[in-house]
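yo

u said u wanted the structure for the complex thing, so here. seqs first:
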Amino acid sequence: MSANRSLKPSFVRGGDLVTLVALGHRQCNPYTAVNEDWMGRVANVEPRLKALMLRGLDGERAAYGEMLRILTPFLRAHFRRRLGGDGAEAEDLVQETLLAIHLKRDTYERAQPVTPWIYGVARYKLLDYFRRSGARRTIPIEEAGALFASETADEGAVRRDVMTLLARLPGRQAQLLRDVKLAGFSMEEAAERAGVSTTAAKVSVHRSMRRLMREVGDEDG
Amino acid sequence: MKTAELIEALAASGTPVPARPVMRQLVLSALVGGAAAAVIVVFGLGLRPLDAAVQSRMFWMKAGYTLILAAAGWLVSGRLARPGGVAGWAPALAAAGVLAMAVMGAMDLAHTSPTDLSREWLGESWRLCPWYILGLAVPVYLALAVVMRRTAPTRLRTAGAAAGLFSGGVAGAIYGLHCPESAAAFVATWYTLGIATSVALGWLAGPRLLRW
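structre next:
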C-alpha cells in the first residue's frame, strides 16, 4: 500500500515510531555511531515498554500509565511527521491511538514483543484517518451545495444539528458532553453535576466525541 | 481533552486483563457459522447417502483437502486478528494443499480416455459447486467477522482474505456432505474455485466488515 511505502524512509531519521519498532526487533540502526546518547536513551525501549505493559496487564496502574507516558512522544512525532499542519490532527490521532491501545490491550500476546503491536495499532489509526479524510475529499459534486449550505447556516440550524447528535448518546453521556463542550463547565464541575468521578467523566466525554465523530464521518462517507 | 489527562484517565482504569484466546474464539465462531451452513445442506440441498460415502477414499480426500485450507485460513486469521500480526508460513500450507490436489487431478485426467475427459472433469454439478460453496461460506465468514471485530485486525484486506479462506474451507467440507462428485480433477478445479472466490470476497469485504 502506498501509505506503507511512505512510512519507510523515516526509519533512518530516528526518534519516531518506526525506529521504535525497529529497535524492538533489535535490527541494526545507522544512528548508532552518529547519536549514541540518543540511542542510549531509546535502545532499551522495547524491554522497558514490555515490562511496563505486562505489569499493566496484571493491573498495576502506575506501570501502565508510565508505559502510556513513555509512548506518547513517539506517537506524537510519528503522526506529526506524517500529517504536518499545526499538530491538532496529530494530537487527535495520538489520543485515538492511546485509547485503542487501552481498549484492545487484551489482544496483546505476552510472549511477543510489544512495540510491533503498538505500531500495528498506530498504523491502523493513521490509515483509518487517511481513509476518512480521503472519503471527505471525494464527496460527489452534487453534494457541494450541501457542503456550503452548512457553512452559511444560521446558528439555530447548527444548534439543532448538535442537539440531534447529542440525542443519540445515552442520557448521562450526553449531559457530560453538553456540560463540558457546550456549557463551559470544567471537567471536575461536570463530573460533580453528573455524580461520577472525574476520571469516569473524562473517559465518557472522550468516548462520546469519538462516537459522534464516527457517526458524522459515516454520514459524510 | 488534553492528552496528559487522557493518559491519567486510562491509567486509572487499567484493570487486570487476561489475554484474549483469539484462536479458540475463531474455532468456536467457525463452528457456529458451520452449523448454520450444515443446516442449509441437510434441509436445503439434502445429504448424500453417507453410509456408502464414508467407504470411499474420495469422500475423505475432499474433507481432508478442504479442512487443510480451512486450517491455513484459521492460522492466518488468528495471527492477523491482532495488531502487528504477520501471516507467517500458513499460506504456504494452503498453496501446498492446492498444488497436491491439482497434481492428483492432473494425473487422474492423464489416465482418462479422451471421451470420458469432460465427464471426469466437469462431473454433474460443476456449474453449481463453486456457488454452493461460496453461499455456504457466507454464514461462516459473518460469524468469524463478529470475533475479528472484537479483536483488532490492522490489515483489513489481508485479514478478510484469511477469514475468506477459513470460511471457504469449512464451507467446502460441509458441502462434501451433499456433493456426490468423486473425481480429484473435479475437486481440484471446482472446489478450489469456490474457495478462491470466498477468499476474494473476504478480501473485498474486509475493510467494511472487520473495521473497529
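Chain A has two domains: 2-137, 141-220. Residues 114-137 of chain A form the longest helix (24 residues).
cya
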